[in-house]
Design a protein that fits this description.
Layout lengths: L6 E5 L13 E4 L4 H14 L3 H4 L4 E5 L5 E6 L2 E6 L8 E5 L4 H12 L8 H12 L14 H11 L13 H8 L4
Antiparallel strand pairs: 1-6, 2-3, 2-6, 3-4, 4-5
Helix pairs in contact: 3-5
């Protein structure tokens, strides 16, 4: 496992962390049915390790030092402010990146603004995980919640054990040593 342990700060509901930097990661715990379904997939993938990494169900990339996040949701790739998650449990992961790498990651990710969500990639990832990861999800190049972040962080020089289309928020938590 090519892990990169990182410093991180958990922000319980009602609080917002300071010190967000371009290129950092935010892991989010969604409370709805989709968040529960994603955590169920993490349980299937990680088994006994699930309690350590399966807590998170969404991810976003910090794209500037003012708290703006780039995220991929059902309506596609969009920007939002960290304030959107004030009432949600999330974790700010401080990645060990230099200024140029941070710029490269955020610039790459921002090039996808407005693009549609890769719904078929999400469905195939769910099927793959349900079947025990017996096949790799084809990479269509369209953005998914985690796949876009992984592609951006690869541009910044980080490496991952799984291809971008095969990754979930729990994979990011495991990669960076983030436990609830």
């Amino acid at each position: 496992m090519a892990s990169t342990p990182c410093d991180y700060v958990r922000s319980p509901p009602g609080e917002i962390v300071n010190g967000l930097r371009r290129g950092d990661l935010v892991l989010i715990r969604g409370a709805g049915w989709l968040g529960r379904a994603i955590r169920l997939g993490a349980w299937r993938r990680f088994g006994p390790e699930f309690p350590r990494y399966g807590y998170w169900s969404h991810a976003a990339l910090v794209v500037n030092d003012h708290g703006h996040l780039l995220e991929v949701h059902a309506r596609g790739v969009a920007l939002c402010d960290i304030e959107k998650y004030r009432d949600v449990d999330f974790c700010h992961v401080r990645l060990p990146l230099g200024d140029r790498a941070r710029y490269d990651a955020s610039t790459f990710a921002c090039a996808f603004l407005g693009q549609r969500y890769d719904i078929w990639g999400f469905v195939l990832l769910g099927l793959s995980v349900t079947l025990g990861d017996v096949f790799r999800v084809p990479d269509t190049g369209r953005p998914g919640c985690v796949s876009l972040i992984v592609r951006a962080l690869e541009r910044a020089g980080l490496s991952f054990d799984r291809p971008p289309a095969d990754m979930m928020p729990a994979d990011l938590a495991r990669q960076f040593g983030v436990v609830p």
